[in-house]
Amino acid sequence: MSNRSLISIADLSPEEIVALLDRAEDLKAERSGRGGCAFGDRLPLAGKSVAMIFEKPSTRTRVSLEVAATELGGHPLYLSANELQLGRGETIGDTARVLSRYVHGITARVFSHRTVEELAAHSSVPVINALSDQEHPLQILADMMTIREHFGYLEGLRIAWIGDGNNVCNSLILASAMLNMRMIVASPRGYEPKGQILERARELGGVPEITAEPSEAAHDADVLVTDTWISMGDEAEEAERLRSFSGYQINQRILEIAGRDAIVMHCLPAHRGQEITDEVMDGPQSVVLEEAENRLHTSKAVLEWMVGRRPL
To answer: What is the pLDDT of residues 80-130, one digit of tens each?
Structure first.
């Protein structure tokens, strides 16, 4: 493969998404001892290092990426904002050019989407978006893996997003369009997904639906998804957001409106009692922990392909 980066979930083709999900399932089975060796005679990241830039702290993203790189035989390098010269005025381009001389891949969890775009523009090694304010492609690969594990397929399923039209929502809209899934988003006015994301989804063949009514989105849904109402960087708006999102909670009433076999997802961390109730999150239809675990397996598939250069 060429020296590609993964900045948006739409940087992948539908066929590549499916191939990554297939590979992640093999890696998951191998790790649990149910399958054969997933790597053959050589670890795919043996002798390779991955720089992992974190402007934002994380639990799942950091642990899943570090464990993934390590289990693939690579060496992960955690780099917080305070440990890079970015904090002292070095340009993003210079940082990317220098890191490219040392490592074989870069992952970046950043505040601004422009930062990860600039890293990719100036890097000679693959750059993987591990979260920006616009997208979260690694999360959506894990979500798609979780949905497919439960239903056995993706095409035609109805996904209801209830809450903030944020970065995770954006990537889910795009992936749903590419994989022929129906997606409807219920957000308060002023917090809907941005027009550029909806337009890109239409270009990809999707027909995303937007409503202000959570019950309308949840009706007969196969998958209910939510996320925190107050993402990192939105803390100054907390009081306003809590007022605006009142009523946009996945609770037992909303779950009963959804399809009989619906599953509930949340990328975590969850603010229990706000966007989701304990009853639902800990209930039998929740796949939240499976979703979190699958961050490891899909991250391994991506790193193996993009950094380890394993063909899909």
So the answer is: 988 888 757 899 999 999 999 999 999 999 999 999 999 999 999 999 999
Domains of the chain: 9-135+295-306 (3.40.50.1370), 139-292 (3.40.50.1370)
pLDDT digits (tens, 9 = 90+) for 275-301: 999 999 999 999 999 999 999 999 999
> Is 109 assigned a catalytic role?
yes
Instruction: Report the chain (312 residues): mean pLDDT per 10 consecutive residues.
Output: 86 98 97 68 92 95 98 97 80 95 98 96 98 98 98 98 98 98 97 97 97 98 96 79 96 97 97 97 98 98 97 93
Asked if residue 112 lies in contact with residue 96, where contact means CB atoms within 8 angstroms, the answer is no
Q: Is the pTM of this model over 0.90?
A: yes
139 is catalytic: yes
> Is 227 annotated for ligand binding?
yes
Among 23, 133, 139, 182, the one annotated catalytic: 139
Dihedral angle sign, alpha carbons of residues 208, 214, 216, 221: positive
Helices (H) and strands (E) in the chain, counts: 12, 9
Residue 278 known to be catalytic: no
Catalytic, 134? Answer: no
Q: Tell me if 60 is assigned to a ligand binding site.
A: yes
295 among known catalytic residues: yes
Q: Which of 23, 109, 150, 200 is catalytic?
A: 109
Q: From its phi and psi, is residue 33 left (phi > 0), alpha (psi between -120 and 50) or beta? A: left
37 is catalytic: no
Has 157 been labeled as part of a binding site?
A: no
